[in-house]
Every structure is written in structure tokens, then in C-alpha cells.
Amino acid sequence: MIKVGDALPSVTLMEYVEVEGNGCSVGPNPVDVAKATAGKTVAIFAVPGAFTPTCSNQHLPGYVAQADAFKAAGVDEIWCLAVNDAFVMGAWGRDQKTAGKVRMLADGDAVFAKATGLTLDLTGKGLGLRSNRYSMLVKDGKVVQLNNEAPGKFDVSDAGTLLGQATLSAPV
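C-alpha cells predicted for Glutathione-dependent peroxiredoxin (172 residues):
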């Protein structure tokens, strides 16, 4: 499993873009994790699935509500990851009003989840292989904080916990 000090895996995620601009076409666009995190501080959190109760009612809304505070703490971007396709992540982002606050990134084939060792096997419950619930603070592609939840829990990956860690590690 990935740990503090490790570099993020060199994989590609997908992002549904609603508006054409900056060389991005409307629709799913690839996001090279290594390039997208280079030289940036990124708050990443992952959920088992879009539109699920805890994810939609608590986890994602916390990051949306705290987006300005994360920026003030020196975080360049906030990413939400889930093992869903880019269309589902785009629809969930619209539903949760994440535009300009949280990037909704699809790990449709679970390549990021597998490469980090942060998977959750929900086979038999109709959900298959998913991402575990966690949050991490990444600086220049390296993990500086990791908050991995126990199965079925939502205790350490919330926005308040990661924001506190980002504030402590922000340059003065």
C-alpha cells in the first residue's frame, strides 16, 4: 500500500469536462496523474462510489464547503476519485455543485486504486472492486499525509481532518 513519502503512481484518470477550453474538449479527457500533480499541492480524497449515501451526504459536501479554506492553506486543487466512469463523475459533480471547487476524477478501471493498494472489494454486494475511502495530501506528486479509513468507516478522511493537516504543512 502507498505510504507517506511515496510518489503517486504514473497512471491516467479521466475527467468529464462540461466546457471546452485550455485545449480540453467537451467530454471525457485524460488526466495524467504525474503531470497534473507536478509542482502542485493537491488534496485527494476517494470514495467507494458516486451517489452513495455517505459519499453524497457527508464526504464530498465537506470538501466543497471547505474549498476556499483549502486554497487559503496552500492547496492548489482538490480531487475526488471514485471507481466510476467519467460520465457518472461528471453527473455527480453537477448534482453536488463542485465546479471550480473539486475536480471529479474517474478511476473507471481502478488502476489508481490498484496501484496504490487502496482497494475495497465489494464483490458479492453488487459493487465489485472499488476504491477504499481515504484522503491524502500530495506535494509535487509525493504523498505527505495519508488518512485511510477502516472498511465501512468515515472517521479520518473528512475535509476537516485533511484541512487541518494541510494548514499545519502550509508554508508560513
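The mean pLDDT is 92.
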